[in-house]
């Protein structure tokens, strides 16, 4: 499982063996058609021919099956992926509802938002994608798995209540994850609203507003009276531009599972937030320990679509099992590749389960002694 021959590599790429031999000579390696190449050399040569190789995946299943992805085009800007956080009752849901109403794509046939854990809004100011992480714990859990999909946190603080326990928690989680925060001071319509107090309290937590010499954008708003929503949307775009969020829509899709379930009629379905590339129906993929072929794609409004690019959430059908939130979703060359990676992962998981199991029984044994 350690090597691939020059001939096999050429065959996989549709490139003549002597071209590869010439390339290797250029690298100072004298080779023949039957020469065995190690992972690193194979990856180097493949990338010289314009292929992206999944190093990690290649090591999982062995180099002779290496996944050759034709390299994509240029990275272009993508919409920001946002998570709304804050203390209970400060207006998270109300703000999201108000933003949804700005969706210019709303009113399209069947335009009812489905609950798939993420949704995309086309607004006058620009497009945004929202990811519902059910609670701050989920945000941290995603981060611990290296699966943080959020570019920006909107921290909602009610102007009549100020910074509370869960406000502090949200700040802590966002800062630990290195995700920038935009503050939405909500409920400014209330008689006892005190936005200045919110600014003071947040300044003490390293979130000073720009007008006080800090770096944090504050938007004063009222979700109830529809005040400040446009300003919020514009400031989201402003921050997104500063972050220069980019992705390459040309390559094969890769993303993260936001939510997954077993549906009675449709089998295993997963909401995948696409992070790179474009997913299409018919694509073969690996997701966690499972694989599959994209049988159908639904957008966040429950409408069937044929493809989806970066920062777009899609519901994927055609998975061999129910993956976990945070699992990486990767489109691969063919069915064989998809199955082999899934199989290798299942085996590995079973091995570590067994190892854990025997450890437990040993522990139990010692307890009894
Ligand atoms: P969440 O728990 O953070 O999702 O908060 P909700 O969006 O459910 O809002 C909690 C309560 O505050 C609800 O009764 C809302 O109607 C109310 N609310 C939300 N935004 C505003 C606002 O801007 N002004 C006022 N006066 N009430 C609001
Ligand atoms: Mg809510």
TrEMBL record:
Question: Which region ranges are annotated with the description G-domain?
Answer: 80-228
**Where, subcellularly, is it found?**
Cytoplasm
- GO CC terms, sorted: cytosol
The entry sums up its family as follows: Belongs to the TRAFAC class translation factor GTPase superfamily. Classic translation factor GTPase family. IF-2 subfamily.
State the gene name recorded for this protein.
Answer: infB
State the function annotated in the UniProt record.
Answer: One of the essential components for the initiation of protein synthesis. Protects formylmethionyl-tRNA from spontaneous hydrolysis and promotes its binding to the 30S ribosomal subunits. Also involved in the hydrolysis of GTP during the formation of the 70S ribosomal complex.
Which residues hold GTP? Answer: 86-93, 132-136, 186-189
Can you tell which superkingdom this protein's organism belongs to? Bacteria
Q: Where does the Tr-type G domain lie?
A: 77-246
Keywords, sorted A to Z: Cytoplasm, GTP-binding, Initiation factor, Nucleotide-binding, Protein biosynthesis
* Protein name, UniProt field: Translation initiation factor IF-2
Record-level Gene Ontology MF annotations: GTP binding; GTPase activity; translation initiation factor activity
Q: What is the species listed in this Swiss-Prot or TrEMBL entry?
A: Desulfocapsa sulfexigens (strain DSM 10523 / SB164P1)
